Amino acid sequence: MSYSQRAKREIRRQLQKILGANRLLSGPEQMAPYGSDSTKIFQPPELVVLPSSVEQVCQIVKLAYSLRFPVVCRGGGSGFAGGAVPVYGGVVISMEKMNRIIEVNPDGYSAIVEPGVITQDLTLEVEKQGLAYPPVSTIGGNLAHNSGGLKSRKYGVTKDYLLGIEFVTGRGEIVRTGHLAEDASSPAVREPWESSPRSP
Ligand SMILES: Cc1cc2nc3c(=O)[nH]c(=O)nc-3n(C[C@H](O)[C@H](O)[C@H](O)COP(=O)(O)OP(=O)(O)OC[C@H]3O[C@@H](n4cnc5c(N)ncnc54)[C@H](O)[C@@H]3O)c2cc1C
Predict the structure, then answer these.
(1) Is residue 168 located within the same domain as residue 85?
(2) CB-based contact 115:97 (threshold 8 Å)
(3) Residue 23 belongs to some domain of the structure
């Protein structure tokens, strides 16, 4: 996507206001790792941002919506579908700083985690409590792909473990589903996956 230099400066200025200067990457060497995934398709981003809260993600998406620049969310960059590659340019929102395991509840067989948690870290954490979480990569990427992994034949894929999501819409609004919704009996957004080829 092409922008005027002026528009680029304004986008950068506003993002810096939201995140602070050290959460913005703009050098070609710094940004190169964010231009590809396991497909090896390469398209360098125009900026990379590293938010650390849902509120910051909302503000970034609202800004993108109002100034009309593309954003691409990135977890671990291990996907085989090119979904994390910024093929239209724009801003990559990397989830690497949103990597907190907020709560593990062994009685409820549940955990609340941020999207950038590396799945292996969650697996190790819940194993301490006698639980298991078999899928791979980051939680956000797993959700977006409804991933499985080697253990999925026996233990199921990501949707089988999902109780609720807090997500940011394309207009920067927060939506909560399932156990995180006010009405905890609401579904955890399973419908789009019912026809997924990875569903067992
Ligand atoms: C060695 C290897 C083996 C694999 N084996 C399997 C397998 O057996 N079964 C299987 O199902 N899959 C498998 N995969 C693919 C797996 O589905 C993906 O690698 C993984 O789910 C992607 O997670 P990620 O965090 O790396 O996401 P990324 O590659 O960074 O992103 C993947 C997609 O998710 C989106 N995304 C990421 N985070 C968020 C977020 N927070 N919010 C919204 N969207 C987001 C991205 O925009 C992109 O569209 C394998 C991958 C590898 C590398």
Answers:
(1) no
(2) no
(3) yes
Residue 200 maps to a domain:
no
Q: Does ligand 1 come within 6 angstroms of the Cβ of 51?
A: no
Which residue has the least CA distance to atom 12 on ligand 1? 147
Number of domains in the chain: 2
Nearest atom (ligand 1) to Cα of 98: 41
14 within some domain: yes
Least confident among 34-48, 51-65, 183-197: 183-197
Full residue range of the structural domain in which residue 111 is found: 101-193
Q: Which atom of ligand 1 is nearest to the CA of 146?
A: 11
For 136-174, b/e burial (b = at least 16 CB within 10 A) is bbbbbbbbbbbbbeeebeebebbbbbbebbebbeeebee
- The residue whose CA is least distant from atom 46 of ligand 1 is 84
Residue 127 confidence (pLDDT): 93
Q: Please state the rounded mean pLDDT for residues 117-143.
A: 88
Give domain status of residue 198, yes or no.
Answer: no
